[in-house]
Amino acid sequence: MRDSFERRITYLRISVTDRCNLRCRYCMPEEGIRWMSHDDILAFEEIVDFTKIALGLGITKVRLTGGEPLVRRGVVSLVAMLSALKGIEDLAMTTNGVLLEGYVAELREAGLMRLNISLDTVDPARFREIARVDALESVLNGIAAARRSGFPVKINTVIERSPDEPDAAGVAAWAAAEGLPVRFIRQMDLAHGEFFGVIGGDGGNCGSCNRIRLLANGVVKPCLFSDLGFSIREHGAEEAIRRAVAVKPEKGTCNSKGGFYNIGG
Questions:
Q1: What homologous superfamily is domain 11-184+195-263 in, according to CATH?
Q2: Strand blocks (E) in 66-104
Q3: Residue 182: in which H helix or E strand, if any?
Q4: DSSP H helical ranges for 40-97
Q5: Which residues contact 119 (CB under 8 A, 6 or more apart)?
Q6: Model pLDDT for residues 177-234, shown as the tens digit of each residue
Q7: Which residues, including other chains, have CB under 8 Å from residue 219's CB and lie 6 or more apart?
Q8: Residue 68 near residue 23 (C-beta atoms within 8 A)
Q9: CB 224 within 8 Å of CB 205
């Protein structure tokens, strides 16, 4: 499955919920947000059926995101259903790590292969300031539990401009001591199409983008920085995928309808 720019689309990011147990300043406004209706959220069976079709069209890599995926009730059973599908070569999850310690063993048994864990600072006071929740210890415990269980772990760190910023530098030093890789992610402005550059990892490299996204309400998006999207409930899974791939832009422009809390990053 290739888009109009001959990029081979092999990577599906699935947002299983728009809910989150943190209120990070760069992600969610202080006054809060309007959550998706429970009636609009896809059932696990819908997600699995969609993923089967996506795999048949050439998807090989699947990542579960949110919001925070571990706040979705029963998410371990979804992992088990997805891991059993023929054609999945890589099944991963991005999590803020707050609830992870209590889920590690079940996720491992269910067939999850890798974890990306968000950590923007290792300073407790700064963590409270950024996330508006006092949960650094829980995140560090989750990371430790994941490593003990044998999960490959990568750390995601959001930065404003540079990995040399104090919080990012602190995470980098901590991760180096722990032997963990860090991916630095620039804060982005969806509405104005910023930022399109690569600082660790391959996110933001439009020329080689191989991703589509399924939002928790069943909308397939071809690009994070785009208002385009196609509902699987309206079009059916295969048609929604094909339409999204067909209009996938050469590079992102803007997204005036979504936010990072509900789009899966």
A1: Aldolase class I (3.20.20.70)
A2: 90-95
A3: strand 182-186
A4: 44-56, 75-83
A5: 97, 139, 143, 155, 156, 157, 171
A6: 999 999 999 887 665 555 444 444 455 678 899 999 999 999 999 998 888 999 999 9
A7: 229, 230, 231, 232
A8: no
A9: no
